[in-house]
């Protein structure tokens, strides 16, 4: 699949979302990747837009807590956020759950 985005020239929009979870008892990172284009891509955009990409995150507290990194690329935008398990709520939780359900391990 191409990583081109719809820039008004009639090509399909492509959305790519990467989620990485690190930490935990074993410390083994887990990764998921979701890609969508065309009409399917448009269903992901409200989930991406709802996330507070520029918000500050709290450091993870306590031993063996997970850390999350989310990277999204769509419509020429490229955003990344890192946060602790305590911040995996609201829009972040919705986006991460959808990527884990509909994406593929990577």
From TrEMBL:
It comes from Microbacterium invictum. It comes from the Bacteria. InterPro entries: Emfourin. This is Protealysin inhibitor emfourin. It holds the Pfam family Emfourin.
